[in-house]
Amino acid sequence: MRGLSGQKWTGMLALSTIAFCAGLCPVRGDAVAKDLVVEKDIVFGTGDGQELKLDLYQPKSHVENEKSVLPGLIVIYGGAWRSGNKDVMRILCEQFARADYVVAAVSYRLFPKYRFPACVEDCKCGVRWLRDEASKRRINPDRIGAMGMSAGGHLSMMLGYMDPKDGLEGDGGHATQNSQVQCVVNYFGPFNMTLRDWDPKDEHLLVDFLNGNLDEKREDYLRASPSSYVDSDDAPTISIHGTKDPLVPYGQAVLADKVLKENGVPSELVPVDGAGHGWWGPNLQRTQKMAIQFLDKHLKPTESASAGK
User: Fold this and answer.
1) Could you give phi then psi for residue 178, rounded to 5 degrees?
2) What pTM was estimated for this model as a whole?
3) Residue 307: pLDDT band by 50, 70, 90 thresholds?
4) 6-300 in CATH: which number?
């Protein structure tokens, strides 16, 4: 996959995302499961005058039980900040909802029309919307996580490590709410954009995203790097990464784990031996189970884990 044109890369990334998500479940089709309540295309904010939409997945038992309070989860698709859509995350979202989360699959503005920091602003707006809806939807506003893969992993880490004082909040809506999440599931997302550890043939993905190369736009590369924001009060993170990833080097996950632990942030590193930029089959089932267990550990305190059930 090295050295492909931008158009071909976009297609390959989209196919990789679809295959990754589809590998979680043998059941296909668009029928909504009877045990879930799914609301499509909810407008959660605006970006440059256009509506931003999300899909909300809830356990039916939660919707019907007025005493139920669940953690929230933002799910973010990948595609090198230039492709993808919230619909490809359906199977993942259903699985998280069945694990007793209120799940919001968000959309965000994409290249070529939009570059950094539009996507960060939009995802932050999604977190703020979820907190604004906390009372209505019976979400614990202090227990919100973010999960994403590739570019979505990068954006999830930005949500986990950026404080409001760090900026990039945008003006999409719900300004009174906090945009930081309390737990992160990072599937093979870039942590530090300044390392020059990418293949030179793939550099155009960062150049497009940040409107210039590292020498020209170093400050923006730093602003776009989750590594720039890590401190001791950041979100616990699990980084799941293929050791043979041809696009985002496995070393990015190793560095994330190291930096987080050095700052006292709970972190787990899950290498997927021999895997590339995505995987499926038993490895996918295994890593998704680990992701849910990590979320449960940090977003469902023992004393309230069974509340509302």
Assistant:
1) -85, 140
2) 0.91
3) very low
4) 3.40.50.1820
